[in-house]
Amino acid sequence: MLYEKAPAKINLTLDVLHKRLDGFHEVEMVMTTVDLADRVWIRAIEGGQIKIKSSVQFVPTDRKNLAYQAADLIRTTYGIKQGVEITLEKRIPVAAGLAGGSSDAAATLRGLNKLWKLGLGADRLAELGAQIGSDVPFCVYGGTALATGRGEVIQKISAPPNCWVILAKPVLSVSTGSIFKNLDLTSVQHPNTKDMLEALKTGDYKGMCRSVGNVLEPVTMDLYPEVTVLKEQMIKFGADTVQMSGSGPTVFGLVEHESRVPRIYNGLKGFCREVYAVRMLGERHLFD
Ligand code: ATP
């Protein structure tokens, strides 16, 4: 039995530049993995099938599951006949803007590469991942990166300065597609990605806090006022900066001083069921 850790990501920045002719959006995102992770267990089975088991009932276990798609793709591409059982121990909230499904798919690619001794490099796995979803290539590597293109062009960058991340997810699931549909690119305020990259390069915590930005945030906040409330509360309890991750609805706060973490965590726990205090994984990449 093989084990792969599948960590969540947060978007320090998320910018949408324009809509492309192929229907995808051209994006620019600074992403980093955090220490809130699904556990993916992989084992070979008789019968040549792909079986998915999930600890969360409403996650699909058929070909709609991104881990299934990853296994199917790698089997077809490399002519593998052996069956596989993939057990997803979900810890990352689902449909939350934390790339849980994409990270499971990436972990499946890494795991099957080992199980079937394919000897593929991270770049090749990321290429395969791009066929499954735009966030999968980043999740193959983990760590901290600038993602461009439709999200699949990955450039490793300096890890963020040390800090705590408080994640809070309101009780609602957001479909990424619906947020993009409501995005009006003529009236958005673009984050300053250059400033973020500079802050990370120089290890400037305050600069990082100043430069967080997500072009999708106002769209999700318009549709779901709960997200605005959560942001306000997190600031009130003492986070240095607060922002929504991905298309939401999860909101994250950055906190430099550990002594402030319990107040924010406990304050949010008073009215929000899913709250996590975690560390960024920084430069620890997932591919060895
Ligand atoms: P992103 O940040 O990439 O938009 P997300 O965190 O918003 O992702 P996911 O948790 O990946 O969203 O789930 C989105 C939908 O994908 C779910 O509603 C679920 O039906 C489906 N899904 C497919 N595979 C998985 C998986 N392995 N884990 C969770 N959800 C999955």
Write a short abstract of this structure:
The chain has 288 residues and is of the alpha+beta class. It is built from ten helices and eleven strands. It has two domains: 2-156, Ribosomal Protein S5, domain 2 (2-Layer Sandwich); 164-279, 2-Layer Sandwich (Alpha-Beta Plaits).
Question: How would the blueprint of this fold be written?
Answer:
Blueprint: E1 2-19, E2 25-45, E3 50-54, H1 66-77, E4 83-89, H2 100-115, H3 122-130, H4 136-141, E5 144-148, E6 153-156, E7 164-169, H5 176-181, H6 193-202, H7 205-211, E8 213-214, H8 217-223, H9 225-237, E9 241-244, E10 251-255, H10 261-269, E11 274-279
Parallel strand pairs: 1-8, 3-4
Antiparallel strand pairs: 1-2, 2-4, 2-5, 5-6, 7-10, 7-11, 9-10
